[in-house]
Write a structure and sequence with these properties.
With 188 residues, the protein is an all-alpha fold. Helices cover 69% and strands 0% of the residues. 6% of the residues are buried.
Length: 188
C-alpha cells in the first residue's frame, strides 16, 4: 500500500499476531477497540476506520460483538452469584448488571433486546372519514332520487312539437286574483 505506510504496517502487524480472526476473538472476549489499538500503537479511531474500509470486516466485528454480548451476560451472572452480602456491594453489582444488560441489548438486540410487542398505530384522518361518509350517503340516496327525478321528468315532459305551440302553464289562482301580489298578500 504505497502512500499508506501506517495502514500497511497495521495489516502486517495484524497478520503477524494471527490475523483478523485473532482480533475478533479478542473483541468477543470483551477487549475494547481502544485496548486493541493501543497494543498496535495506533488510535482507536484509526483501527475503527480500517475495520470499516471492508464490509466483510464490519460484519465480522459485529458478529464478534454479538458473541461478546453472551460473554458479558455470563460474566454478570457470575458476578451476581458471588456477591458479598452488604448493602454497598449489592448496589454496585445491581448497577453493573443493569449496565451489562443494557450493553448486551445494544450488541445483540435479537437475543437480549427488549420485546416491545406488536405496535398498532391508528392514524385518524377526519377529512377522509368525512369524504367517505358523504360518498356513502350519496350512494345510498342515489337510487330513490334518480327514480323520483325520472318520474317527474316523465310527468312534465312535453313533446317537441307541442312545446312550440302549447300555451304556457297556468299560474296558481292566488297569484292571478286582483288585490294580491304573487305571494298571496293583499295589496289594497
Amino acid at each position: 500500500m504505497p502512500g499508506k505506510p501506517i495502514e500497511a504496517q497495521l495489516h502486517a502487524d495484524i497478520e503477524a499476531a494471527g490475523g483478523w480472526e485473532t482480533i475478533w476473538d479478542r473483541v468477543a472476549n470483551g477487549e475494547t477497540q481502544t485496548a486493541i489499538a493501543e497494543g498496535f500503537g495506533i488510535s482507536q479511531g484509526f483501527l475503527s476506520r480500517v475495520i470499516h474500509l471492508d464490509q466483510a470486516r464490519v460484519r465480522a466485528f459485529r458478529e464478534a460483538k454479538r458473541r461478546y454480548a453472551v460473554t458479558l451476560v455470563e460474566r454478570t451472572g457470575e458476578l451476581v452469584k458471588h456477591i458479598k452480602e452488604n448493602r454497598d456491594a449489592i448496589a454496585k453489582v445491581r448497577e453493573q448488571a443493569s449496565h451489562a444488560r443494557w450493553e448486551a441489548s445494544k450488541w445483540d438486540r435479537e437475543l437480549f433486546g427488549e420485546d416491545k410487542g406488536d405496535v398498532n398505530v391508528n392514524v385518524l384522518n377526519i377529512a377522509q372519514w368525512h369524504i367517505d361518509a358523504l360518498r356513502h350517503r350519496i350512494v345510498e340516496a342515489s337510487p330513490p332520487l334518480a327514480e323520483a327525478l325520472q318520474d317527474r321528468a316523465a310527468s312534465t315532459a312535453v313533446p317537441i312539437g307541442d312545446a312550440i305551440t302549447a300555451a304556457p302553464p297556468a299560474l296558481p289562482e292566488s297569484a292571478t286574483s286582483e288585490g294580491t301580489d304573487c305571494q298571496g298578500c293583499r295589496t289594497t
